[in-house]
């Protein structure tokens, strides 16, 4: 009986012979049979990949036949690079985010007045301060926080911080102190952006939104503050793609997302939830204010002129569903809040589109 797990034997590809060895002629490539249309529309006589059982298959070119590009890029010298101190969040909601320290005092905390804003429930409004002394050394100082500041697992009041030290603020947030150059700092920023942002629209992605929503609901329940969610969907977006092409559809998504970001406060969050669906997380916002915001977004998008050709523009509309935290049961969480906004969005679609629904469902 044939063993279904037996590894298939692959043909061995020999290394090129050394320069002083005589070159063996390439095996002739078998002539392809006359092409005939197949079910996939390709010519059946053209091989799509080298057959694993045919050791004579050859691409007709070896590495020795290719020359190296003579152009040379000179790397900057170490003296030309600019080193700076950075703090990178390595645990918490914004893990991966990088803050650059410019040699002055920086207050870390949850309050909007903090220089480095850390939106975590266990972080005090003015939690700690990182300062640079005249001799270039950096120190971290606790500012009387509720949950403490830790360095190397020890709770501290004032302590010098060195490269690769980890600073813990409260129970959940850990930052890594480092001295980096411009190129490394830019790389870290790009990695963080790629993990939290949607590649097309540059708004936050769904994964990041889900993490923030969970934290915001917990914070709002604990501190009795307002919170609202707006789910938005472009009307008849498939017709845009079918009529004008997918590149035009991409243009619509980019311009619509950019317009929404102009209408939101700094503490609000907009994310791409699906193909043509977006979601807005409005902090400290009740039902009435959320409905006003949703109407403002709807009117702004409806009046937006989207150029898809040199002499042609189109208009699109959106349907929106609004839900606030008091709309769900007292034990309801982020799933229930988002589900209610989704039901109201579909109600807006059913009632004629281009409208805001904040009741029922």
Give the averaged pLDDT, no decimals. Answer: 82
Give the biggest beta sheet.
Answer: 6 strands, antiparallel
The unreliable regions are 4-13, 35-44
Helix vs. strand class = alpha+beta
Task: Give a description of the structure.
The protein is α+β, with helices and mostly antiparallel strands. It is 25% helix and 23% strand. It contains 6 helices and 18 strands. It has helices at residues 182-196, 206-223, 237-244, 246-262, 287-302, 334-350; strands at 84-91, 98-101, 106-109, 116-117, 128-132, 138-142, 149-151, 154-155, 158-161, 166-169, 173-180, 227-234, 269-272, 277-283, 306-309, 312-314, 318-324, 356-357. The chain has a 6-stranded antiparallel beta sheet, with helices on one face. A 5-stranded mixed beta sheet has the order 4-3-5-6-9, with no helix packed on it. A 5-stranded mixed beta sheet has the order 13-14-12-17-18, with helices on both faces.
């Amino acid at each position: 009986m044939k063993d279904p797990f037996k590894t298939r034997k692959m043909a061995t590809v020999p290394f090129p012979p050394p320069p002083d060895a005589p070159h063996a002629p390439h095996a002739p490539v078998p002539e392809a049979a006359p092409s005939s249309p197949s079910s996939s529309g390709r010519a059946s006589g053209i091989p799509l990949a080298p057959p694993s059982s045919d050791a004579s298959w050859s691409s007709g070119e070896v590495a020795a036949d290719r020359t190296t590009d003579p152009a040379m890029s000179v790397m900057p010298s170490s003296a030309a690079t600019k080193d700076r101190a950075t703090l990178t969040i390595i645990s918490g909601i914004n893990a991966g985010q990088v803050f650059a320290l410019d040699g002055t005092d920086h207050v870390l905390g949850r309050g909007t007045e903090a220089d480095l804003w850390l939106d975590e429930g266990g972080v005090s409004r003015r939690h700690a301060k990182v300062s640079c002394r005249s001799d270039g050394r950096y120190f971290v100082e606790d500012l009387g926080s509720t949950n403490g500041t830790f360095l190397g697992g020890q709770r501290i009041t004032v302590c010098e911080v060195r490269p690769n030290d980890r600073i813990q603020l409260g129970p959940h947030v850990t930052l890594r102190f480092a001295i980096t150059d411009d190129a490394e700092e830019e790389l870290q920023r790009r990695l963080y952006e790629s993990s939290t942002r949607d590649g097309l629209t540059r708004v936050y992605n769904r994964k990041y939104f889900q993490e923030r929503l969970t934290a915001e609901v917990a914070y709002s329940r604990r501190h009795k503050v307002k919170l609202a969610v707006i789910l938005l969907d472009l009307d008849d977006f498939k017709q845009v793609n079918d009529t004008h092409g997918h590149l035009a559809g991409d243009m619509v998504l980019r311009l619509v997302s950019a317009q929404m970001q102009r209408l939101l406060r700094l503490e609000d969050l907009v994310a791409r939830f699906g193909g043509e669906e977006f979601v807005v997380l409005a902090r400290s916002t009740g039902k009435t204010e959320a409905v006003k915001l949703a109407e403002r977004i709807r009117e702004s998008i409806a009046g937006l002129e989207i150029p898809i050709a040199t002499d042609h523009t189109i208009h699109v509309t959106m349907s929106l569903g609004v839900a606030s935290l008091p709309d769900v049961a007292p034990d309801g969480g982020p799933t229930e809040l988002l589900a209610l906004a989704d039901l109201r969005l579909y109600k807006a679609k059913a009632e004629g589109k281009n409208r805001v629904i904040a009741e029922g469902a």
